[in-house]
Amino acid sequence: MFEDACALSEDGSANGRVHHRMLLQGGRRREYERSVDAHGVCHPKHADAYRLLPVPEGFGVAGQDVYGSTARSIVVADGHGPNGTDMALQATAIASAVDEYDPGCIVDARQVERDLRELVKSFLVSAPDTRSGATYVQMLCHQWRHRRWVITINVGDSEALLVDSSSVLQCSVAHNWDDRNVYKRYMNTCASTPQPVCYNRWNAGKLTMTGPNNSREPILLYDARGVPVWENAHFVSNKLARRNYPFGTQSVRMPSHAYENWGSCVCVNNKALGQLVVSFGDQGERSKTGASYDMIHVYVHELGPDEDVTAIVQSDGVSNHKTIEDCGLHATWSARKYAQAIVSPRDDMSVVKTRWRPKRKTPCPAR
């Protein structure tokens, strides 16, 4: 099984140039069937996060995760902050609006990208909370006659995958500062002066780990020009040792560069502002960092008439513990088994899967 990701070219925009997958027009008419499966696991630290808030039909709550499906989509919103669950629930309103969008036969994927980005942006701009927020990922299954597309929208770092029998395609792009390319896009589109990035888990949280020279200030990883601060980056890299999630490092998908570490965040006036300021909500942190509302990833992927695929959306409580290859190998598992196979999770977990395949022909009864 091989892994791939939707291709991006840096073009100075907030999202880079997304290379959509579009097939030549044609193919024979087929009938298709689609099934949906979802599961969520609440971490004990968020056992009291859900307080009788209204939950939209088709959705469930696991701590600060909200997950579920609509008529055409599968969705995960991962809340954070004091009102994280409420923000994740409010984010599901995006799903209904996207479901109503009908591009017909898609001939211009870039127009679809622009339309959906503007639609989602209207929700981000009006999100009410200044100190809480939610990531958001949605995969829309769109069909026009015999042609099919899976359209992915994501804000933040919740993940979307498209799996077939031999490969896994990562359809989402994580908006976090662990990816230096994301930081470069932030620099290019920042509404104010771009801020440096630091490693926050040790020094801005409750842990007592000290940085170089016994300092407890946030450890800069790269400055406001995007240049790595190599002495500190190497210090962090050596301390992490790239194993066993020490000191708050979350993911089994270890980054390839010393300055790309889980736990990095924008640093303003020597204060770490949290891992994500690209989210639904977090208006206070957006205003301090100048993060663009346009950082909304949209990817259009057309399926062939014979393709049998499983689309997966999941919170980082799941993706931080599964390699992309594992996600592909386990795609046929039930959502419950898929999530519960993770031993000792460190966060809430939610996963929604939909399988979309050509309808099986019913055999003629024997005479």
Protein model, in words:
The structure is a single chain. The protein is 21% helix and 28% strand. It has 367 residues and is of the alpha+beta class. Strands 5, 6, 7, 8, 9, 16 and 17 form a seven-stranded antiparallel beta sheet that branches. Strands 1-11-10-18-19-4 form a six-stranded mixed beta sheet. The chain has a four-stranded antiparallel beta sheet with strand order 13-12-14-15. The longest helix has 18 residues.
Please mark out the parts with pLDDT under 50 across 5 or more consecutive residues, or reply none. Answer: 242-249
Name given to the CATH architecture of the largest domain? 4-Layer Sandwich
Q: Ends: how far apart?
A: 43 Å
Q: Based on Cα principal axes, name the global outline.
A: globular
The overall number of domains is 2
Q: How many DSSP helices?
A: 9
The helix content is 10-25%
| CATH H-level superfamily of the largest domain | PPM-type phosphatase domain
Assembly context of the chains = single chain
List the secondary-structure elements in sequence, H or E.
EEEEEEEHHHEEEEHEEHEEEHEEHHHE
Backbone structural class = alpha+beta
Task: Tell me the number of strands.
Answer: 19
Sheet-strand content, in percent, reads 25-35%
Biggest sheet features: 7 strands, antiparallel
